[in-house]
């Protein structure tokens, strides 16, 4: 059964795209068949990895085609990494969100399409950093939501106001339990007492406000240069920093911890292709 993850934030600059790319890269290295969907009008994920076999179509066709099976015709591009495919964002005219607003079922087309998809173990959907039809579509499509949060008081307030309210907005219209658990992922953490206190306070506040529906993950993404270096080199970050000296976990250890926390059935799975990919792209 395909697991669908919506990677969402109601604010830009939280690391959604890099999280989506690096999580997808680690899952693919573990042998999972992964599809990335760039659901952002600013197509950062579309250009993150090298594409060996570009598709003729992309997000626009996936969302606007009525038949959920035919929606997949010609929209999947092949990246240079085995097990890692991509639907690019191709809304060059900026018309897709207006179309979604004016179409009665516009926000649920993506949900129907991904649930009709076969051949993948995990689908990761990147989304805009604003409350918008595409954000709502990603929320509705996911089995659960992964939301990166920067470790600051203002970011925590935006998470509580923006993401939790966005989920509540959807619940007010679709009362079928269509949105699963929202997992908060603290991103860019410094090794300071203030950061530790922030995470503890955020975990308690999010759990209380959401009545247990929002959970802050134990895994945290440290503030290191490895993630920027990986993006520059168009690589999953676990290949750029497989090991690290000192108390801060390496990027490979961090992404593996994130996979293990979100996908418990993969905890005993070993990486099967890191060496080959490092040789090909190093």
The percentage helix is 40-55%
So what's the overall shape?
A: globular
Query: What is the CATH class designation?
Result: Alpha Beta
Main pleated-sheet profile: 10 strands, mixed
Distance N to C terminus: 34 Å
Q: Total strand count, please?
A: 10
Number of domains: 1
CATH topology: Rossmann fold
Helix/strand order, N-terminal first = EHEEHEEHHEHEHEHEEHHHH
Our Rg estimate from Cα atoms comes to 18 Å
Overall mean confidence score, pLDDT: 89
Estimate the strand proportion.
15-25%
Which class of secondary structure composition applies to the elements?
alpha/beta
Defining traits:
11 helices, about 280 residues, globular, alpha/beta, Rossmann fold
Structure description:
- With 282 residues, the chain is an alpha/beta fold.
- The chain has a single domain, classed as Rossmann fold, CATH 3.40.50.300.
- The protein has helices at 16-29, 59-64, 96-102, 109-115, 133-141, 153-173, 193-209, 226-233, 237-240, 251-262, 274-281, and strands at 3-7, 34-38, 51-53, 77-79, 84-87, 122-126, 144-149, 182-189, 214-216, 221-222.
- Strands 1, 2, 3, 4, 5, 6, 7, 8, 9 and 10 form a 10-stranded mixed sheet that branches.
- The chain is globular, with a radius of gyration of 18 Å.
């Amino acid at each position: 059964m395909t697991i669908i993850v919506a990677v969402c934030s109601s604010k830009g600059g939280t690391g959604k795209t890099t999280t989506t790319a690096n999580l997808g890269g680690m899952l693919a290295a573990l042998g999972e068949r992964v599809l990335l969907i760039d659901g952002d009008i600013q197509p950062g994920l579309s250009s993150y990895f090298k594409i060996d076999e570009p598709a003729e179509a992309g997000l626009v066709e996936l969302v606007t085609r009525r038949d959920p099976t035919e929606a997949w015709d010609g929209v999947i591009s092949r990246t240079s990494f085995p097990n890692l495919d991509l639907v690019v964002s191709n809304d060059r005219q900026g018309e897709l969100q207006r179309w979604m607003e004016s179409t009665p079922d516009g926000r649920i087309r993506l949900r129907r399409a991904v649930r009709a998809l076969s051949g993948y173990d995990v689908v990761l959907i990147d989304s805009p950093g604003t409350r918008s039809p595409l954000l709502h579509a990603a929320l509705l499509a996911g089995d659960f939501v992964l939301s990166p949060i920067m470790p600051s008081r203002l970011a925590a307030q935006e998470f509580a106001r923006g993401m939790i309210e966005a989920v509540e907005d959807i619940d007010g219209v679709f009362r079928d339990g269509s949105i699963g658990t929202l997992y908060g992922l603290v991103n860019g953490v410094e090794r300071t007492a203030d950061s530790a206190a922030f995470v503890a306070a955020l975990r308690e506040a999010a759990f209380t406000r959401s009545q247990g529906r929002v959970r802050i993950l134990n895994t945290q993404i440290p503030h290191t240069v490895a993630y920027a270096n990986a993006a520059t080199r168009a690589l999953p970050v676990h290949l750029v920093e497989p090991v690290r000296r000192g108390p801060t976990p390496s990027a490979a250890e961090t992404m593996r911890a994130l996979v293990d926390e979100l996908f418990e059935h993969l905890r005993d799975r070993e990486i099967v292709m890191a060496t080959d990919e490092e040789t090909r792209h190093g």
